[in-house]
Amino acid sequence: MSQLLALSISVAVLGAVWAYLALGPLAPYVLVWAGFITAGCFFAAGGDNNALIKTLTGIIYGAIVGWITLLVIVKVPMPALGTFWPALVVGVFVFFLVIVASIEQLSVVPANVYGFAMVVAYTLSSGKLAAVTTVGAANPVVLVILSAIAGVILGYLMGQFAGVLKAK
Fold first, then answer.
1. What angle do CA 152, 128, 145 make, to 5 degrees?
2. How many domains does the chain have?
3. Torsion 128-129-130-135 (CA) sign
4. What one-character DSSP code corresponds to residue 28?
5. If we measure between CA atoms, which residue out of 86, 83, 60 comes closest to residue 72?
6. DSSP 48
7. In sequence order, what are the residues at sequence separation of 6 or more whose Cβ sits closer than 8 angstroms to the Cβ of residue 148?
């Protein structure tokens, strides 16, 4: 079996399992789309053990930077600046997504950016800005990090299963 066919089957089967779990029994704890983004990032980063570490580290780092960004925007309001204030805060904090790329575990800049984007996008699109100060799975950063852990495991398993299928 070709590598492409093996990977396609693996992604289809395990993607369906992930969707079932994330939309069903794990729904309060993970986001189906965040898991898929993380799995895709894992493959884009090389799909090996190093990619697993770099993807997970980068997405968690980016998620935390995104969360801190939201905390600053919420806790240090500057109404006189209008939308310039959140834009400025975002600009300052996204700098830290890239400047850390000389650190090996944070060298996959897209992972850093995806983590940031997932927290900020989910928080703002779902109206969960007040939840950034809560403890537990209701906090967008916790939800994204749990999803990223599951997603990088998903990507790893997809790669392993594809290897088994290719060998047959």
1. 15
2. 1
3. positive
4. T
5. 86
6. S
7. 34, 35, 38, 55, 56, 59, 60, 63, 115, 118
CA 83 from chain center: how many Å? 26
Helix (H, G, I), strand (E, B) or coil at 128: coil
Q: Which residues of the chain have pLDDT under 50?
A: none
Q: Give the number of other CB atoms < 10 A from CB of residue 30.
A: 24
pTM for this prediction: 0.93
CA-to-CA separations, 46 to 49, 50, 115, in angstroms, rounded: 9, 8, 18
Q: What is the domain extent for residue 92? A: 3-167
Structural tokens at position 7: 């990977």
Closest by CA position to 151, among listed 50, 39, 17: 39
Residue 94's pLDDT is what? 97
**Tokens for 37?**
């983004």
Tokens of 142: 């916790």
